[in-house]
Amino acid sequence: MKTKKHHGSFMLRFMILGFSIAVGVLTFWLLGYVLRDIDRVKGPDYNQMIEAGVPQELQDARQALAAEAVELKQQIASAEERRRLTVQTTNDSQQTINQLLELKRNADENETKLSEDQQQALTDSLQLFLSNQSQMQVLNAELATLNEQKTDVSQKQQDNARAITAASRPIENEYERLQARHQWRLAAYKLGLLIPVLLICGWMFVRQTGGTYSMLVYALSGAVAARVILVMHEHFPAIYFRYILILLSLAIAIGVLLRLLRLLANPSRDWLIRQYREAYASFFCPICDYPIHRGPLKFAVWTRRSLKKRSLAAANAGDATADQPYTCPCCETTLFEACEKCGGIRHSLLPACEKCGDAAGRAIGSAASE
Question: Which residues cross the membrane (predicted)?
């Protein structure tokens, strides 16, 4: 006797689904931590290769020019600040001179003279103004010299940068080659870990499909497969990854299609029972899908969609035609027959008699093979 599969309550099925998702997510995270540890394997060091491959005199010249450029920048900023203060002092002196000249003009008009303090202030202001003008000229000359030096240093830096670029181009090519080889090595380490786990999950997937631990196997297989796809996407070139993904998807699609075709040619007992149960519930022949005209639907016409909207009248207790053997007139399959144990009318294609529970009826699948 076939062991019955219990579906359990809604809450139990919901908890199984939730914990299966949790197992899949946790497995995905665990594999991620393991792969990140693999990523810690050191690859080629670009800075170290540059320092070892570029001539030392070019590196020293680059550092010296950078330091000189910083120093010139500070000197230019200091000179500009001194010039700004000098301009401000010159403007103040010019304003004082203008005020004193205005006083002198008024005194001349009134035929008077400035006081000795005012005369001395005018003389000092003129001397300060002339001194500031001289200092401005000196500062402008200094700034011009510093800017010329800065331009010269910038030109030397450009020449140095071009020389370093020319010297480092072979090093960059070598670094790219070593980095690509390192990426392939990391991919080999990761796939060497994931592929055996994926094969084990695939074997369990085939063995446990529809079994007791199928949800656990589905969660583990999904997490491992997702990590394998991410590793290939990270380490494989885009053109290779596209081909691998397409071929893998094609293989999965062909595998599922072959399984469905085998299931159609040699259906399992559970699939047949489900098909027969749904057909009987809809008053259609499970073999050819012809309507079952018996009972309250003996003279009715319906489809699967219209049957849901139809209200069926209960059969009379004395109606003999409501519970009699019935054979499909289209495919000649016996759909209702007399039970060998109790004599009542039972579904021919279902495992047990609904009246006495006898399961010694027609073997499931015999009608489909006829």
Answer: 12-35, 187-206, 213-233, 239-261
Q: Give me Rg for the CA atoms of the chain.
A: 48
pLDDT tens, residue by residue, 139-193: 888 888 888 988 998 998 898 888 888 888 888 888 888 988 888 888 889 988 8
User: What's 346's DSSP letter?
Assistant: E
pTM exceeds 0.70 for this model: no
The confidence score (pLDDT) of residue 3 equals: 47
Instruction: Over range 76-84, report the average pLDDT.
Output: 86
Spatial CB neighbours of 232, under 8 Å, sequence gap ≥ 6: 187, 191, 241, 244, 245
Judge contact between 346 and 359, C-beta under 8 A: no
**Amino acid at position 250, single letter:** L
- The residues spanned by each domain of the chain are 9-235, 237-266, 269-304+323-369
Cβ neighbours for 273, distance < 8 A, ≥ 6 positions apart: 350, 351, 364
Distance between CA atoms of 183 and 197, rounded to whole angstroms?
21
Closest by alpha carbon to 366, among 348, 352, 343? 348
What is the Cα–Cα distance from 299 to 293, expressed in whole angstroms?
7
Cβ-defined contacts of 98-105 (< 8 Å, 24+): 100/125
Q: Looking at residue 337, what DSSP letter applies? A: E
Gap between the Cα atoms of 69 and 128, Å rounded: 35
CA 300 to chain centre: 56
Name the nearest CA neighbour of 140 among 105, 97, 187, 90.
Answer: 90
Write a three-state SS string for 147-198. Answer: HHHHHHHHHHHHHHHHHHHHHHHHHHHHHHHHHHHHHHHHHHHHHHHHHHHH
Per CATH, which fold does 9-235 belong to?
Answer: Helix Hairpins (1.10.287)
Determine phi and psi for 233, rounding to 5 degrees.
-65, -30
Contact in structure between 318 and 298 (CB atoms under 8 Å): no
Phi, psi of 334 (to 5 degrees): -75, 120
